[in-house]
Amino acid sequence: MTVNTWKSLDVAVLGGGLGGLSAALAMRRQGHNVTIYERYDYAGEVGASLSCASNGGRWLHDWGVDFSKAKPVILKKLIKRKWENGEIISEYPLGDYEQKYGFPYYNLHRIDIHQVLKDYATSEEGEGKPCELLLNHKATKVDYNTGFVEFENGTTITVDLVIAADGIRSLTKPQLGITPVFKSSDSGCIRVLFDTKKVKELGLTDYSNNEAIEYWGETKFKIVLSPCANNEVISCYCFFAAGEGDEKNDWNNDVSLEKLISSCEGLDPVLVELFTKCGYDIKQWRLYVHEPIPYFYKASETGTKGVALLGDAAHAMMPDQSQGAVAAFEDSGALGYIFSKKFNLSIAEGLKIYELERKERVTKIQAASLRARENLNERIGWSSDNIKHEQKLTIDEVCGYDMKAHIDELIAANI
Ligand SMILES: Cc1cc2nc3c(=O)[nH]c(=O)nc-3n(C[C@H](O)[C@H](O)[C@H](O)COP(=O)(O)OP(=O)(O)OC[C@H]3O[C@@H](n4cnc5c(N)ncnc54)[C@H](O)[C@@H]3O)c2cc1C
After folding, report:
1. Which of 2, 34, 79, 123 is the most buried (most CB within 10 A)?
2. What is the per-residue pLDDT for 43?
3. What number of CA atoms fall less than 13 Å from residue 387's CA on the CB side?
């Protein structure tokens, strides 16, 4: 075991997305001094539903987050419907989910949970010193040997630990010697929202009270619909086979209703009517397949400085297991626990445990997310009864995971 005396670390979190904010919150609660540097000013934030399985929710509970502030809908089942007419094919019940895994299956609006995490990270209330959040700070240079970071606006800092939560196009990753390997997938996604009040007023089919994630289609063409924001918003992701002209890589790409409808040929007329009469905020996204990266951190030779990659920067994945943000919450939970007073690890030791804990698990989830892109039966829940091969990902291993126990074992075996 290390002989270092525990000290509170100066931590720079690069990126104020869901991953960065959760990492900041986890680290501040352990007594570290945390500053979050975000390249933008959050103006024009967009978003739709984000489901938060128990393996993510348990960490937010651990950090004292009151979920009611994020206006959750609690999911009770998955529903599979026929593409052409919405007829129910099968249901996967999640009624015993909380009892089995300890926490509910929350469905949230991305903007609500982002706001809540920002508030908890920066609030005077709660364990630890409030994090500082600096907007319009785009990190351009990161040196893991010295903890030095330079920003586009000319500011420089030197810290003990850098947590790079700078997203799928992370600028930090190449500076750690990692060349990202990714390719454009043949899938695109269009996001459309419905206001529940308007759906009711127009007398259209209302899916807001089904307490479910509902799927139309099972392959590349797939609709994923779910209510969020206290059932006030119904969110719909429409996956389709993308071609030339669908190269846009940003949610801020508005697309027309015509494009949405033509991407969903032969779809249930009930949904098409919803799109037509009350769909709003229609945005398109091209999906990319990212290969797993070789390592998740670099530490200085002295062991006293280091950079950890977190969230999409470390393990960008297809959205089809609904685990990207949840995996980022787990990453944050891991860092907070590893760098707690309980262990008194140096930065190099802690980051080694972080990688041992996170890499194998998220790589498996990443692979299963890609398989679920083309086969809904690979999705946790549905996979329980339908998938037989050995690499299958199960809802029990994802949602019932005891990460603290695993970290305890890893530290006992490796430090
Ligand atoms: C269609 C779709 C549906 C999804 N549904 C779910 C779901 O239901 N459940 C789930 O768990 N996940 C879901 N995900 C995945 C989830 O959205 C992501 O995994 C998650 O948002 C990643 O968070 P992050 O903080 O790592 O990255 P981001 O959200 O990309 O945040 C990165 C932040 O870093 C900032 N930044 C970038 N570069 C710099 C820099 N150089 N300096 C400073 N700041 C910088 C960015 O501006 C941004 O704020 C879905 C994804 C998609 C595409």
Report:
1. 34
2. 76
3. 20
